[in-house]
Structure formats: C-alpha cells, structure tokens
Design a protein that fits this description.
single chain; two-stranded antiparallel sheet; two-stranded antiparallel ribbon
Length: about 210
C-alpha cells in the first residue's frame, strides 16, 4: 500500500485531535475526556481496515516484550470470537460474516482493550483509530447536521453540548475524505473500492496486510 494513504489518513485524524483540543478550550472543565482516561476503552467495537493498518504501524514501534503481551491478549480474544463464529477467519473482516451479530455486541463487556497498559494508558495513542478520537463528544457538522448526538455522560453535566456551536466541526467534509481514503486503500488491498471493511481491534493486530486474502 502506498505510504501516502496512511500519511494522508493520519493527517486527517490529527485534524480531529485539533478539533477535540479546541472543544476543551471552549468548554473547559465541562469535558472530562483526556489522554490517559480509559473508562470507555472496554469491550469490542469495530474499526475500519485502514484504522487497523495504522494501528499496526503504531504497534510495530513498541518493544518486543510489550508486543508479545499484547498479542497474547489479542489471540485469546480472537479465539473466543471464532468459537462463536467459526467462519471468522483472516483477514477478520466483519462485513463478510454471513450474519450481523457483530453489530450488536454487548455494551457491558468489561474486557480492556489489549492496547491499554496496566496503568490504563493507550500504548499506541498517536495511532489510535478514528472512533477513539471522536468518542466522548457529539459530532455535529458546521451546518448543524448531526452525525452523532451521543456524548460521554461524564461530560457536560451543567450544559447541553448540542447547543454550543463552537463545538461543531466540518464532519461531512472529514467523513467524505475518510471514505475516499478507505476506497483507495481497499483498491490497493483487494482490487475493489469497498467502503465497508471493518474489524475489531484485537483482530486488527493479527491481520497480515501483505497477504490480506
């Protein structure tokens, strides 16, 4: 895969980091989310295959002993999934399963993300997926269009973030750019510009992107 796709995607993700920082400047102590907070880093949630590739890039920068500890957790999680879904095989693409049970994963799963340290810090923070960067705040476009009204219940105990225009961001433009990069990435990996190629974080660590099929 051309390195420029990952570079461009990481630049896009960094723009979301800037947005989040600006929101903290605007809202101050109404936002409790911060680097090191891991209250929501539990259970299974899907990420794009492009997120998975970027995640691997960050994972590869860890020391060998840390990587092996993480892989043990990831392999255990994937084995559990394969017990429930025997057809769930490499490259672990959820959208290719013959059912959609993965879209209804339990919300009360306490299992920590395998990429959390013992102290609860993300070990690949600069390479974390888009959903991790968006979580906690509502995603309202500059136009007022809502891409997500949800926000962490620890935030905004004394105000309504949906009524704070300074928290808005050009999400439609951002997501359009994301889809373009996803299509380009899928074309390189599989020969077709598929947009729905999702996996779980533990699975992402085990994907062989040199032989994705």
């Amino acid at each position: 895969m051309p390195k420029t796709i990952l570079d461009q995607y990481q630049t896009l993700l960094q723009s979301l980091d800037h947005w989040f920082s600006d929101c903290i400047t605007v809202a101050g102590d109404q936002i409790t989310c911060h680097k090191g907070c891991s209250s929501c880093c539990r259970g299974l949630f899907e990420i794009s295959l492009l997120d998975a590739r970027l995640l691997q890039q960050g994972f590869d920068r860890l020391d060998a002993a840390t990587r092996e500890l993480i892989l043990v957790k990831a392999r255990t999680r994937v084995t559990e999934l394969q017990t429930a879904w025997p057809g769930f095989q490499p490259p672990y693409i959820l959208n290719r399963l013959p059912h959609d049970n993965w879209q209804e994963m339990p919300e009360d799963d306490p299992t920590p993300c395998p990429l959390l340290s013992g102290a609860g810090h993300c070990l690949i923070y600069s390479h974390r997926p888009m959903c991790c960067r968006l979580h906690g705040l509502p995603n309202i476009d500059l136009s007022g269009e809502s891409f997500s009204d949800d926000y962490c219940t620890l935030n905004f105990s004394a105000s309504d973030p949906l009524q704070i225009p300074e928290l808005r961001f050009p999400f439609r433009v951002t997501f359009t750019r994301e889809f373009d990069l996803l299509a380009r990435f899928a074309r390189v990996q599989f020969g077709t510009p598929e947009l729905e190629l999702d996996t779980f974080i533990p699975c992402a660590l085990l994907i062989d992107f040199d032989s994705p099929d």
